[in-house]
């Protein structure tokens, strides 16, 4: 019952937060400088009557709240409107580009989890020169922004060595081709977060090693590998799991830069172009999707934390 009550409460909080976020996103685009009608004219001069006709067609001349509530009502029905730039439904744009971005983010997340946990554990357990190497490597990773990593990887592995494509997603050539095309973007996207997760894992494991239960287990002659796996690494997963929201949000935000650098053609690149051209419906739809994914990840993390660490109760993280 506590689980159900907590889940319902969090879902209601998510709905209210998403509603507030929708208002902020819509208001930010409404207040942004420039006029989407000018883009629709393609830079051509037009008479006041022509401008008025365009604004009336797209309801750009309506009061702010009238525009917002009309848009919100359509969104609740699954209609994100029509793109001003591409002259097509936003839902169709997202359906064609979202799978590419989700594959890119999924590949990057896999790299982050595997390498981040492995490096953090390796440094904490081995210590000495191994730990120093991990610290130096993670410092380099954390200090390298995604767009810089994208340029370096593109120049070395795509241009100089020719091992990977320098652009595109390979979406029309099968799944294997997509993975090949998205490998460099995924590495560029993951590099910073690999360093971050490795640091968090290392610190959490070092702290867990100082616990009394670890000392008791060693005094009883429990093999060290069992202590590391059952007592140290498992107890370190709590702090690691709490960084999941930060990791996912960083991946979603940085994909805008990485997709643009590699011309991937996902929703990140679409968001960058839509913001430049003041394509209101597209920007608003993508922003809501990103916010929704971020809140969903945090919700799942809150549900998983008590399973990973029984000392944590439902809702403890949100109250902290």
UniProtKB/TrEMBL annotation:
Cellular compartments annotated: Cell membrane
Topological type in the membrane: Multi-pass membrane protein
Keywords assigned: Cell membrane, Membrane, Transmembrane, Transmembrane helix, Transport
Record flagged with keyword Hydrolase: no
ABC transmembrane type-1 domain: residues covered: 98-301
Spans traversing the lipid bilayer: 12-32, 102-122, 134-158, 178-198, 236-262, 282-308
Gene Ontology molecular function terms on file: dipeptide transmembrane transporter activity
Pfam family, one: BPD_transp_1_N
Highest taxon of source: Bacteria
GO cellular-component term (any): plasma membrane
InterPro entries with a match to the protein in the record: BPD_transp_1_N (IPR045621), MetI-like (IPR000515), MetI-like_sf (IPR035906)
SUPFAM superfamilies: MetI-like
Family of this protein: Belongs to the binding-protein-dependent transport system permease family.
PANTHER family, alphabetized: DIPEPTIDE TRANSPORT SYSTEM PERMEASE PROTEIN DPPB-RELATED
Protein name: ABC transporter permease
Organism phylogeny: Bacteria, Bacillati, Actinomycetota, Actinomycetes, Kitasatosporales
